[in-house]
C-alpha cells in the first residue's frame, strides 16, 4: 500500500517538473547507480581475486573469463532497480525497460558463450599437443574447436533472433516474410549455399577428422601444418611461415596429402647419384653410423638400395624414419650432407665423373709433297 502511495507522490512530483529537467534528473540517477554498480563489481572482483590467490589457476581463469558478463549483469540489475524511481513518463520508462530487456538477452547469449568456452577449456586441459605422441590430443582439440565455433555461431543467431522478437513490428514482418516469400527463401538459400556447405563440411571434419590441428599436409603443392580450423576456412602454416587460407569444404571435396593422419612417424628419402664404381656396402655402413648417432632418428627404419642405373651414374636411395615431418626433413638433410662429405674425403672416385678415351690413330695417309702448301700461284 505504501508503494502505491509512493508512486502516486512520485508521479505528482514528476508532473510538476519540465521535460528537460526530468531527463536530466533521470540521467543523473541512472548514471550514479551505474557508477556505483561498477565500483561494487570492481571491489568484489578484487576481493575474490585476492582470496583465490596465485595457487588456484582454474579459479583465476574463471574470474577472468566471467569478468565481463558479471559486470554487465550487475549493471543491468542496478539500472532495472533504479528505473522505476526516475521522474519519467510511463512511455519513456517502457522504452528504457525495453532497452534493458534487449541488453539482458545479449547478456544471456554472452553468458552461454562464456560457459561454452570455459567448458571447452576444462575439457582440453587434459590434452597436450606439444609432445611427440599427440595424436589423441590433436583429435580432441580439433573436434572441440570446430564444435565450439559452430555453437558460437548458433548462440549468436539465437541471441539476435530473440532480440528481434521483442519488437512487435519485426516479429510480424518476419512471420509475413516466412509465410509469403517462398521465392525469396529459395534465393536466400542459394545465396547461403557456400555458408551451408562449409557448415556441413565442418560437421564432417569434426566427426571423420580427415585433418586435425597441427597435422602435416600438402595442399595445392604446398607443405605445411594445420594451424587453425574456423567456421568457414582452414589456415595452413607453410614451412616458410606463410599462411595458406583454404575453404573448409576443400578438405571434403578435393584430394590432399595428410602425412600425420594415423601417426606422426614418417619415412624420408635421400637420393645420391654416384659413379658406377662407388662402394655401396661402405655407403650403407656409413648411413647406419650416421643415423645411429643422430637424435632425429626414431630407430625404426634405415635402408640403402641402388634404385636406378644410367649411362654415367647410378642412383642410390637411402630411407630413414623420424617421429615427425619436421624431424624427418632435418634428418634427410643431415644424412645427405654427411654422406657427401664421406664420399669426398674417403671415396672421391665414387663421385660422378665423365670418361673420355683417347684413341691414337696410326698409318694415316700422308698428303703428296707437291700438294702441301699448294695454292694459286704456289
Describe this protein's structure.
Strand 1 (216-219) and strand 2 form a beta hairpin. The termini are far apart. It contains twelve helices and eight strands. The chain folds into three domains: 2-126, no CATH class; 142-263, SH3 type barrels (Roll), CATH 2.30.30; 266-350, 2-Layer Sandwich (Alpha-Beta Plaits), CATH 3.30.70.100. The strands form two sheets. The protein has a five-stranded antiparallel β-sheet with strand order 4-3-2-1-5. Strands 6-8-7 form a three-stranded antiparallel β-sheet, with helices on one face. Helices cover 58% and strands 15% of the residues. Helix 6 packs antiparallel against helix 9 (193-208) and helix 11 crosses helix 12 (325-346). It has 378 residues and is of the alpha+beta class.
Poorly predicted runs:
174-188, 369-378
Q: How many DSSP H or I helices?
A: 12
Order of strands, main sheet, comes to 4-3-2-1-5
Q: Specify the helix fraction band.
A: 55-70%
Category from helices, strands and their pairing: alpha+beta
How much of the sequence lies in strands comes to 5-15%
**What's the rounded overall pLDDT mean?**
79
Number of domains: 3
Task: Report how far apart the termini are.
Answer: 148 Å
Radius of gyration: 38 Å
Order of helices and strands: HHHHHHHHHEEEEHEEHEEH
Layout of helices and strands:
Elements lengths: L1 H15 L2 H34 L4 H9 L1 H16 L7 H35 L10 H31 L2 H13 L1 H10 L1 H16 L7 E4 L2 E8 L3 E6 L4 E5 L2 H4 L3 E2 L7 E9 L5 H13 L4 E13 L4 E9 L2 H22 L32
Amino acid at each position: 500500500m505504501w508503494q502505491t502511495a509512493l508512486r502516486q507522490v512520485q508521479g505528482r512530483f514528476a508532473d510538476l517538473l519540465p521535460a528537460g529537467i526530468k531527463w536530466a534528473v533521470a540521467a543523473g540517477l541512472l548514471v550514479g547507480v551505474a557508477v556505483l554498480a561498477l565500483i561494487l563489481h570492481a571491489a568484489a572482483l578484487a576481493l575474490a581475486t585476492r582470496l583465490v590467490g596465485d595457487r588456484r589457476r582454474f579459479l583465476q581463469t574463471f574470474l577472468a573469463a566471467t569478468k565481463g558478463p558479471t559486470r554487465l549483469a550487475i549493471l543491468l540489475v542496478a539500472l532495472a532497480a533504479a528505473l522505476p524511481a526516475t521522474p519519467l513518463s510511463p512511455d519513456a520508462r517502457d522504452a528504457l525497460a525495453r532497452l534493458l530487456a534487449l541488453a539482458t538477452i545479449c547478456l544471456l547469449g554472452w553468458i552461454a558463450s562464456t560457459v561454452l568456452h570455459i567448458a571447452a577449456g576444462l575439457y582440453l586441459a587434459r590434452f597436450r599437443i606439444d609432445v611427440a605422441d599427440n595424436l589423441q590430443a590433436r583429435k580432441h582439440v580439433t573436434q572441440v574447436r570446430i564444435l565450439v565455433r559452430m555453437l558460437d555461431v548458433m548462440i549468436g543467431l539465437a541471441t539476435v533472433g530473440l532480440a528481434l522478437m521483442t519488437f512487435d513490428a519485426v516479429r510480424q514482418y518476419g512471420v509475413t516474410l516466412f509465410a509469403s516469400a517462398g521465392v525469396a527463401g529459395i534465393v536466400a538459400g542459394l545465396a547461403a549455399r557456400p555458408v551451408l556447405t562449409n557448415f556441413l563440411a565442418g560437421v564432417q571434419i569434426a566427426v571423420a577428422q580427415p585433418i586435425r590441428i597441427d597435422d602435416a599436409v600438402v595442399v595445392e603443392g604446398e607443405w605445411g601444418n594445420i594451424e587453425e580450423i574456423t567456421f568457414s576456412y582452414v589456415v595452413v602454416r607453410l614451412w616458410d611461415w606463410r599462411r595458406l587460407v583454404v575453404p573448409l569444404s576443400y578438405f571434403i571435396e578435393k584430394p590432399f596429402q595428410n602425412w600425420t593422419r594415423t601417426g606422426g612417424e614418417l619415412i624420408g628419402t635421400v637420393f645420391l647419384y654416384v659413379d658406377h664404381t662407388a662402394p655401396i656396402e661402405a655407403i650403407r655402413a656409413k648411413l647406419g653410423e650416421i643415423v645411429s648417432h643422430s637424435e632425429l632418428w626414431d630407430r625404426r627404419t634405415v635402408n640403402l638400395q641402388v634404385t636406378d642405373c644410367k649411362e654415367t651414374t647410378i642412383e642410390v636411395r637411402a630411407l630413414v624414419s623420424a617421429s615427425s615431418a619436421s624431424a624427418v626433413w632435418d634428418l634427410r638433410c643431415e644424412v645427405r650432407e654427411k654422406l657427401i662429405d664421406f664420399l669426398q674425403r674417403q671415396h672421391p672416385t665414387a663421385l660422378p665423373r665423365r670418361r673420355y678415351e683417347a684413341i691414337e690413330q696410326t698409318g694415316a695417309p700422308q698428303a703428296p709433297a707437291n700438294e702441301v702448301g699448294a695454292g694459286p700461284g704456289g
